[in-house]
# Entry
Amino acid sequence: MQRSMRILFSAFVAVVLASPVFGKPVEPALPPPPPFVESSVPEGKALVYIYRLEGFNDVLILARSGPIGRLPPKSYLSYTPDPETVKLWLTGTSVADLKMDVVAGQIYYVKAEIGPGLFFAGTWTCSLKLVPRADAMKEMAGLKQTE
# Structure
């Protein structure tokens, strides 16, 4: 009698734990992030989007003309320079720069990346790189614009 009760109880526990009510809850699928939509390029200018996917603190983005803005994680800035050679800087605990020739009417995408340094705790490596439009459009989906 005790043996059959143990078997019956074990079977009951197995059924309860396997059921969706008591097992791992089914999580609803998250909706895809909204797609990134480009702005129109002002006449006689170029349009540069500078974006950042990950990180902790804001970083400062600068151009020769002065500060463009602070760039927190999961956000982007837009910058409309005159057609010329543009030099951008990213400053945090280290500095990165990118020099590029921009043409009026064109759109450019620059990805800012910040990662841990190699040798010392508290140091970071920074980079700015030009990204193809197709890659940037995928990565920028769901990012928010910052001023």
